[in-house]
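Do me a favour: review this protein, sequence plus structure tokens, and tell me how the chain folds. Record follows.
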Amino acid sequence: MPDDRTIVLKPIKWYKNLATRKGRLEAEAFLIEGDRTIKQIISSNPDDIIEIVSTEELSPFYHKYSKRLVTDSQLRSICSTKTPQGIIAVVRLPLDTYSDQLPDNFGAKILLLEDVQDPGNVGTLIRTAVAFDFSGVILTEKCADPLSPKCVQSTVGTVLSLWIRRTSRYLELVEKLKHNGYSLVAADLGGAENPSVLQCQNKLLLALGNEASGLSDSVLNVSNHRLRVPTIRGKAESLNVAACGAICMYLSYHKY
């Protein structure tokens, strides 16, 4: 007996809207681009894939997911990259990403990003946090949106591997974590402590600030430690926030 059910395709504009926060919240979904990134998401969160959109027939690897074929021009109009890789995925929006409610299980190490505005930096820091066993990331509302296309691309599929909160009430979360025994370690150009302090924390909240102005006094004044990553004198005054964060997270992981 023929199947008379009608499959209604979403308009291309629906996918384009996922590039905006409003569109993501309305659809409760976001986009990831590229075969490698999609496979990373599938390996860690296979049930969060809603749909695969491609310009070519897909390999059997994707057989369990809903699929849609589009033209090259349609895909280019959806994607943020200038040269799309021919495949994107619609992914379920992680629960509570834009809330001020911490998860039940905080984890031992948490990253705090205050007003880090470059999507590449935010994505790289999320990816690095996953690599060095951080459980979550707290971002201020002035940070780049962690689920924006450029940021997700920079995470290379690791964006669902930890919990994320983006909120204006981040200082309240800091106080709650400190009340629960977390030590707030601030990376600060004016800091005097050696980064080795990171190796002594059982519950760590590592704070990194804005690319130009660093951390605010609101964070620095409640920090337990203020460290500076030393550089060779005369070679460079300071490090990019993503590089500084990578060094700090590495040191927090390797306790000699």
The chain has two domains: 12-92, 109-253. The domain at 12-92 is CATH 3.30.1330.30 (60s Ribosomal Protein L30; Chain: A;).
